[in-house]
Amino acid sequence: MLLEVEGLSVNYGHIEAIRGVSFGVEEGTIATLIGANGAGKTTTLKTLSGLRKVREGKVVFDGTDITNLSPEKRVKLGISQSPEGRGCFPGMTVRENLDMGAYVRKDRRSKAYAEDLDRVFTLFPRLKEREKQVAGSMSGGEQQMLAMGRALMARPRLVLLDEPSMGLAPKLIQQIFAIITEINQQGTTVLLVEQNAAQALKRAHTAHVLETGEIVRSGTGTELAGDPAVKAAYLGGD
Ligand code: ATP
Known about the structure:
Helices cover 37% and strands 26% of the residues. By secondary structure, it is an alpha/beta fold.
């Protein structure tokens, strides 16, 4: 397992946001957490990237206990997060945002940096077209792409994607999910948090359902997509 999450509990004051959450992500796969609003999906991702403190439990990345590591150290180890919504630096250009994603690497003039930039521009041609535009003036979908591109600039082994399809038009949703599969096929392990359960289950190798802070079901994407309870609650009953 590249990532092992064991009995994770996180509180906001007295509110238990997640309770005893355990799952693993195998290297080279796409794993997804699905669940309704407030189920604890974002909290789980924030905890994995080091932005929230753990009350109980353990996070192991590639054999190293990272439970109490700073976000910067986690990025250096190879975990980077694409935040929910418009998580870009609005006053900076597209290119400057992408450079921020590569900030942990001190090789901005190197071949590796040029290759990563090229990879992001190939995945998201729109970002290449808008290289000099300030992020704040781009559409929601474009900013979502920029947030994903920025996360990839850290050359992560594991990328954490928080609701990449949120607020996007149906055509763009298809496109974003196809890009997620492509990113994975290029060798990056993906942990995807989504409310768009149908698309997420279709793309994911393994999947978990979060309900009020707890994992209530786990399986392959295909298994959960065929599970009557999952269908009724998350797939519009068909
Ligand atoms: P959504 O899909 O709506 O983003 P989610 O599954 O990502 O939801 P979280 O944002 O992780 O859910 O929230 C889990 C629980 O923790 C919710 O009950 C939420 O109200 C609570 N919570 C989240 N952030 C805070 C905060 N900063 N302070 C207090 N409670 C919070």
